Amino acid sequence: MRKTTLFLTVIALLLTATLTVALERPLFLNLFSPPSISGKPSVVKNLDIQNLPSGIFKKPCFDKPMTYNGNLGNPQQNIGYQNNKFGLYIYAEVDYVEYAGDMVNSNGGDWGYVLLPINVKDYEASKWTKIFELLNQKHLIPIIQLWDLTKKEQEEQIAQSAYFLNSLPWPTKNRYISVYNEVNDDRFWRGKADPIAYAEILSATIDSFKRVNPNFFMLNGAFNASARSGPGYIDEEEFLLKMDKAVPGIFKKLDGWASHPYPQPEYRGSPYSSGRDSIKAYEWELALLAKHFNVKDPPIFITETGWAHKEGEDENTKYFSKETVAEFYKIAFREIWLPDQRIVAVAPFTIKYPAPNDHFSFLDKDEKPYPQYKVLQEIEKIPGLPPFVLERGDACN
């Protein structure tokens, strides 16, 4: 009887996982590794994907160069300017930008960060120009996460996305780009994780963006650090070694390191835990980079992290209460991330997410903040002083 019950439980779990793969970022239980969030970050309400012909974007020229803020305050050594580390994972919606600004730039803060995913086939200039203009107004530094590269058109899409993103009115000199997402997970890489292909694409993307504008600041796509090799996953250490074998020195081409240090297992880990399954997983990654590739202490950008709360449209009692999650966030920022001078930005996942995976959301379905939003809003911050744009050159093409 016990064996039958166990078998039926496993089957039920597998069926649940299969059904949820079609969701944007479903919770997937892998029997061989800790769970992870997966899917495509397509929460943007009005995604207008366009496949443009080659050469439609040209490198912009300017009658006069950009003028940037020269008062960089008391600089954080690894990034070169006084830095407000607070950030949030959002989507290209005006209300999300405003909510993010009200949180990350509160209580003395200025020039915090937002993580924004962008489809490399989405060249809707009016939408993205509006969002970037609002980022300027709200003093928010975007970290752009690329996604949804098409294999047969990848060279064209890499080039076009570089030109398109360069054409937008960036608020700061540094133009942060994270090259895709959790690529050691099959569901994030064309159905089959491929370290050789990703290494080649990462290298080509870095080269393409740097040719267009050397101010692009290139980050890897953050990995699923907690996943071990098994169905659907490749262990990160194994993945990195295969990447470097395919493209020797690939990690030395990066300007910084993107990380997803989630509190595992089941997003229920203690904020005081350490190791690859914790909110300090970036330390384990830094050790790998130093040991295998002689890459030492790159600036760290936490582009996803966080706990799930049980509250949502449907209660999920395996998660902590919203009050506990808020307390954990307060501990994590005050005691772990803010004092760590290796970290540049922390952008928890996520501003708002649809059910059934709304347990990570900072806002509920009516856009009322959960306690974690208010707790982070209340933490005292420093005003960031990046080299932001004072005067924009006049385009001459």
Automatic annotation (TrEMBL):
SUPFAM superfamilies: (Trans)glycosidases (SSF51445)
Matching Gene3D superfamilies: Glycosidases
Top-level taxon in the UniProt lineage: Bacteria
InterPro entries in alphabetical order: GH
Protein name, entry field: Asl1-like glycosyl hydrolase catalytic domain-containing protein
